[in-house]
Amino acid sequence: MKAIFSTFATLAFLAATPVQAGEFSVVFINPGNGTSFWGNVAGTMQAAANDLDIDLEIIHTADESTSRDRFSASKAAKDVASRDKKPDIAVIVNEQGQGPELLDTLNKAGIKTFFLASKLTDEQEAKTGKARKDIPNLIGSLTPDYEVAGYEMAQSLITAAKASGKDKDGISILALLGDTATPAATEREDGLKRAVAEEPSAKIVRAISVYWKRDTAKERVSAFLDREKADGIWAANDPIAFGAMDAAREKGLKPGTDISVVGLNWSTDAQKAVKAGEMTLTHGGHLFGGAWAMVLLYDYFNGKDFAAGDNPDVKYLMSAITSENVDEFLTKLGNEDWESIDFSKFSKVKAGVTDYTFSADAILAAIGN
């Protein structure tokens, strides 16, 4: 199978015609660059493609100097759509609300599509139509349950504040949002709000957008701490959690003692911070979404449809890495050796499993086996 990496700044459900392994090709239009979270998504996707003998091309639409560039993603979709030899399917992300545009471009070219990480919102779907039913080429989606993740992150901050007696005067939470333009971001924030609504002593003192940048997080948290206090910082990903901790330290606050911090992404650095007691947890597991997408598509193209009844949208839970399980994660995943996992064992076609188990425990059990 080949691996290519490039960068740009009918009512009845349709069953795929079975193919021989290695006879279908996938293009993933990756909204990020080759590092950090989206780099890991690409890494797990490629490892799974290798295990399943899938032709995979990954197009990164951002480099080190840009972030989540909607114009580059649009250009990438048009490039793929204009090719003489088109892929069997394109994996796309509804980043910055541009899912309908990418979908339209690829659908007009007759290319099957599959949403990863962020699918169409209800409002978008009302305009475009539903997967398979209204758009036969759109075969489905795979998304994590971001709302539960945001909820569990907030619960961790509340638990930490109570354990240190800070709930007596009320628990103040500062929320650092990566953006407000994606379904994933909205769902994570909804989870945060649900947890706070359930705890009378907790409140969100501020919600600040920091655009996924560590430096911006540091700057804005520093300005906030000059005027107000927070017992906990809810950060939408690990890098901005680190920016928040940078600011806290400059103000003489010790993360994990004076102020609690949570992040998301399962980054190795965040796992080390959890082990050191500086973060209460890093939530995640969705970096394996790339691998799970390959498993679902492999089964689909080999006659085992992943759709549950009339629902082609698959959702899975993420998990928290805490002080209780961080050692095992660091030991098994700390080197980010995705090739050590045999992803074919998650396939209904390859392994004969009856249900998909896209969980943290399943990942750990599969490493080195």
TrEMBL record:
Major site of localization recorded for this protein: other
Organism expressing this protein natively: Pseudochelatococcus contaminans
GO function terms (MF aspect): carbohydrate binding
Record localization: Cell envelope
Leader peptide range in chain numbering: 1-21
Protein name listed in UniProt: ABC-type sugar transport system substrate-binding protein
GO CC terms, sorted: cell envelope
Family per record: Belongs to the bacterial solute-binding protein 2 family.
Domain Periplasmic binding protein: 26-304
Keywords: Signal, Sugar transport, Transport
InterPro entries with a match to the protein in the record: Peripla_BP_I, SBP_2_dom
